[in-house]
Amino acid sequence: MNLDLVATGTAAAVVAAATLRAATPILFASLGGLISELAGCINVALEGVMLVAAFAGVITSAYSTLWFPDAPLWLHPWLGCAAGLLAGTALAGLLAVFHLELGADLIVAGIGLNILAQGLTVLLMAHLTGDKGSTASLASFALPSLRWPGIGAVPVLGVLLNGDEDTGHNVLVYVAMAATGLIAWALRHTVFGLRLRATGENAEAALAAGLPVRRLRYAGLLLSGLLASGGGVFLGMGYLTLFQADMAAGRGYLALAAVFLGGRRPLGTVVAALVFGAASVTAARLGQLAVPAEVVFMIPPLVTIAALVLVKQHQRLATRRRAAAGRAALLSP
Amino acid sequence: MTVAPLAIALEDVEKRYPNGTLANSGVSFTVAAGEIHALVGENGAGKSTVMKMLYGLERPTAGALRIHGLLADFRHPGDAIAAGVGLVAQHLNLVPSLTVAENVVLGHEPRKPGGRLDRVAAAARVRELVGQSGLAVDPAATVASLPVGVRQRVEILKVLHRGARIILLDEPTAVLTPPETATLFATLRHLAAAGHTVLVITHKLDEVKALAGGVTVLCQGRVTGNARMADVNEGTLARLMVGRDLPPPPPRRPAGARLAPRVIARDLGYVDGDGAIRLRDVGFEVAPGEILGIAGVEGNGQDVLARLLSGAAVPTTGDARLDGRVFTGLSPRAARSLGVAVVTEDRLHDGAAPTLSIVDNLLATRYAQPPLSRRGLIDRGTARRWAEAVIAGFDVRATGPHQPIGALSGGNMQKLILAREIADAPAFLVASQPTRGVDIAAAAALHTRLVALRDQGAAILLISADLDELLVLSDRIAVLYRGRIVARFEAGAVDARTLGLHMTGLGPEPKGGDHD
Amino acid sequence: MTEGARIALAVGAALALGFLVMACVTDQPWAAFRALVTGPLPSMERAADGRLVMHRLVRFGAWLQDATTLTLVGLAIAIPFRARQFSLGADGQLFMGALAAAALSLGLGDVPAAIALPLAFLAAAMAGAAWGLAAGLLKTRFEANEIVTTLMLNVVAVQVYRLIVGRVLNDPTAGFITTPPLPGAATLGPLIARTNVTAMVLVAPAAVAAVVFLLRRTTLGYEIDLAGANPWFAARAGVPVARATVLAFALGGAFAGLAGFHVSNALLKRLPVDLTPGMGLEGIVVALLARGRVAALPLAALGYAYLRVGAQAMERATDVPREVVLVIQALIILFVVSDRLAPLALGSLRRVWMRIGRTA
Lengths: 333, 516, 360
Hints:
The structure holds three protein chains of three kinds.
Chain A lengths: L2 H36 L7 H22 L7 H27 L4 H24 L15 E2 L10 H6 L6 E2 H19 L1 H11 L1 H6 L4 H27 L11 H11 L4 H23 L4 H39 L2
Antiparallel strand pairs in A: 1-2
Helix pairs in contact in A: 1-6, 1-7, 1-9, 1-10, 1-11, 2-3, 2-4, 2-9, 2-10, 3-4, 3-9, 6-7, 6-9, 7-9, 10-11, 10-12, 11-12
Chain B lengths: L5 E11 L5 E11 L3 E5 L6 H8 L7 E6 L2 E3 L4 H6 L2 E4 L11 H6 L5 E2 L3 E2 L1 H15 L14 H14 L4 E5 L7 H16 L3 E6 L2 H7 L2 E6 L2 E7 L5 H9 L20 E9 L5 E10 L3 E6 L6 H8 L7 E6 L2 E2 L5 H6 L2 E4 L3 H5 L6 H6 L9 E2 L2 E2 L1 H14 L16 H13 L5 E5 L7 H16 L3 E5 L3 H7 L2 E6 L2 E7 L5 H8 L13
Parallel strand pairs in B: 3-10, 3-11, 6-9, 9-10, 15-22, 15-23, 18-21, 21-22
Antiparallel strand pairs in B: 1-2, 1-4, 4-5, 7-8, 11-12, 13-14, 13-16, 16-17, 19-20, 23-24
Helix pairs in contact in B: 14-15
Chain C lengths: L2 H23 L3 H10 L4 E4 L5 E4 L1 H26 L7 H19 L4 H30 L3 H22 L32 H18 L1 H11 L1 H6 L4 H28 L10 H11 L7 H21 L6 H14 L3 H19 L1
Antiparallel strand pairs in C: 1-2
Helix pairs in contact in C: 1-2, 1-13, 2-12, 3-7, 3-10, 3-11, 3-12, 4-5, 4-6, 4-10, 4-11, 5-6, 5-10, 7-8, 8-10, 11-12, 11-13
Pfam families (chain B): ABC_tran
Keywords (chain B): ATP-binding, Nucleotide-binding, Sugar transport, Transport
GO molecular function (chain B): ATP binding; ATP hydrolysis activity
């Protein structure tokens, strides 16, 4: 086999695996953002949900060893995972209550909850660990990685499927992929998906058709909380194995951008999330070269803005093409 | 023991909104099973509120509703649907991106295991309902692609799919052509014969006469009349509705020599962003002191024509001139500065800013010129005095010039909009649906103003779905069908029936652009 | 219930809940709460010679300084909001404003204050306006969601700031990464001794007054209002909607830029690389507390700055981290925007009250 080819392929596989890893939290959150957006509720609190989920996951997995000293070791990360999902979903539930019951503006309430999440996590972290920066002093757990046996030696594929350190991908990376397929399918083919989309597109029509609009919106927001929590748990118990202040680092907002960028469709959203993942990997790679870190950090936001502009330009060109065809038809007698 | 079982009974129903508005008070009437009953009254008389209460969208603050003899306390539409009540709302409530079948079954979907939607069964169900009711629609079509008349059929199918025995229709003919109306009435009679009860809201008395067996008249939230159709005539009903005698129609223009045209449009064509041809080969002339009426079913290019003529869209072909100067293809502001004014079709959407005050709404077209502003500074005192003069002069019911315009009734809002548009004595006024959803008295006042503007020498293009309005006001009438002018008439030489035929493409002349 | 009472109630409830949170993380919650509530006030004492002496003026000054910045960033949120644009970009605009003011001040070197100050002031306003203009153009030209673009522009601005402060304007003699101190002629002197309360404390209310006048009395202000109230109607009426929207963004940006000028040329007098972002979000709180009424911004800013300075006092006096103020801030936001909360709470309170009355 041509060694250059293998080397190139391996390098590409390393980048692809890293992209997948970097994209996973954004992917989770953007799927969540998509679901609530389709239910007619923009979820700006994705960022806060991720933070809270990461924090609850990390703290619970660490404290679980104190609370249940006799439990088997493999249980602690899963308890953390459950707590993270629960906490994040609860925050989304809070958003739903404030918006649907108390009449709060969805965007402002979302921003409020993000601030709440930021404050509460740091406050509690400082209280529990005496450190306002990270939980490095706690022994928290990571969720297990899935390693495909027997392909470590296979060039390219081995790196792609098991990562460059041959440890395999975190189980949540696979969950994210499965969730993507499941959600795309469910939105299109289930009664729930139909009702959710109807609610988001024309709430008045959904109400007149006898649909429980409020309950559907609760469902949309809670599901979006659950999914974004998956992203948060991955950040604290997969991507890293600790919690840091402001750990979500804008990924929740990026996820929201991915939903808009993807035209509010599952496939588009996933592609946009992967693009953001790739942008951050590229940024990290450039950082290893002599490019200043500040420039590197500008890449993801600039990519987002450029993508929004390009998508619009693309739509415009398509419109212009269609209009030109219509114009030709109009001018021909 | 009653002879005919009652399908609907209202007993002293009252509805007071949280803000204190009393929409209904002491409303009592009954509808027998299998009857077609009409609920008539002016806008704001409380008809829609009755419908909403019957469908669980609002709850009465006092009194009781009975459906088939049972006390009905509907908390939301789901309860009403379960009790066999279905509503075809005035603003059609469909989800545009879904198919006909999906819209029909929404809320009561046939399922496959695993919570999956059974699309095949849904389509079959729609075909079955189409067979039973005679309402022709394609179950696989996307609702967004359907004309309004067909969408309404989808609404009725939706109601039938839920097994409704009582069908409520809120102003169902407002968006229909005469032939479509006839089809709808046939369907409703067919459904009533099959045992359905139909309650229909309308303010068109000829329709009541043609369709209903019984009628209830509402005026200012109360029942002012209740009769079998056989026992009353239209004049009696009209008096019951308005509470007084109707004003006479405005005088027709004295016949005279036609002047040279002031507005000349030629060859106007428009292609939208989807590449669809929305308007083609449209040409017309309007003389000073003349009203040209444009008839047509909604969605046949009237909205596009109004947008082109007011500078809100750029024509793909052709242009229009006012006193020799091209005013299309520029901008709304440029068109206005050349003497064009526009009353838009949907006043809440692009005719006013409901949250802003009357003053701010009146300012919108004139704020940038003296005497209302100088060197970028608005003269608030002058603006307020002008608003007060308009409120008095146009008999607008408002608490003052700073009241939000959205708090006014449709008629009062429309008076202010017309006042704003004619304030600068425009040379050319494009008026789209100027009296839609406006009560009879306000409509008469608006008509008088339009005629007065005409008599001052303005050219007016009147776009309306209300054929009576067109026939009364216009000097000439052109019919738009699928983006073309398919027929032209002198106003005195045509009736509503002929216009209706042309509006649906069934006119006697050959279709297409042939000239005679 | 009046709007003011509603907001007072919301703030009171948020403070009460904040106290509960404090009680969870410290065993001296009362001391912490007292520090929070009285922190910004100066204390007066009668000195030996019988004169009144003010103590803790530094914190009192900090209160006014903070309120000045907050008023300006509040304008940066409130003006685009009049055009119904949800700009979250005050942060980036502030950083660009600060950077421009500092760079110009350093670049001019030794010139009289009469030249340096106005130029730095203008540079800050223009830099902020340019950053706002970018978001406005992205919105009107490309329909790019302004929430997303302003957040992204914030990130870019902070990185541009760090790049230039760290690599271009860096003062190698300082012990940390920062610009050299700005020339004295370019900085504002204090109005109150031992504080950084400068003329900017008067500029902020003047700016508010100017904006109130602009919105109420000028054609541009009217255009912004109409474009926000109903853009479709505004367009049909002949109002240049896109221009008004873009100008609202730019105008808002100019005031955030001035907040940057306040930070660089009045408060810090040099720019450290790790200037903390987040002031823009505080601007949202202020705009929210003012309920979109520009004239109420200074009052809202004073109230909110009081809380922030109190939190710093609390952190110094006790073991409660100042992040507790984030929690209180979030609760204020949530309670203020929940229109149905106050009637609901008061209603149930009344019911409980009546039940007590009946049983008694």
